[in-house]
């Protein structure tokens, strides 16, 4: 699919932007309690997230493309829980806020590690060719997608799923901090 899009002249950044638009549309659908529509839009958004890198490898990767992909992914990851919070603030606000905090701190630990890895000239292709150094963790993109799918399929379980995933995300953050202490300490 990426080869056909690239051959048609579609650029990676356009697909990245499309993924964000679809992700925000998913959050809006969820906010209006249209969970099946939200699920379909989440899946379409993540398809774009997978295609943009493949298209970039065909047309030629750019630093801006890597930057854009990371920033817009973070926006997507914040938008979906926000949709659930808006859908039912009484039931979802605190759990959603806890999940967003976990995402925020995890994102900071991820980016700070990448900065230090660059400073120390560390390289890794364990997760494929990326724009910056990726550390592995228990809560990553695939796991986040699985949890978002579960939230759409079982919206009344959002608080339980959000708290549970916040714990896994926090574990990932703590693991990364420990790794950074060992590597850079």
From TrEMBL:
Keyword field contains S-adenosyl-L-methionine: no
Family matches, as PROSITE patterns: CDP_ALCOHOL_P_TRANSF
Transmembrane segments: 24-44, 64-87, 93-116, 160-179
GO terms for biological process, alphabetical: phospholipid biosynthetic process
Any single Gene Ontology cellular-component annotation: membrane
Alphabetized Pfam families for the sequence: CDP-OH_P_transf (PF01066)
Annotated keywords: Membrane, Transferase, Transmembrane, Transmembrane helix
Domain of life per record: Bacteria
UniProt GO molecular function: phosphotransferase activity, for other substituted phosphate groups
InterPro entries documented for this protein: CDP-OH_P_trans (IPR000462), CDP-OH_PTrfase_TM_dom (IPR043130), CDP_ALCOHOL_P_TRANSF_CS (IPR048254)
Protein family: Belongs to the CDP-alcohol phosphatidyltransferase class-I family.
This protein's name: CDP-alcohol phosphatidyltransferase
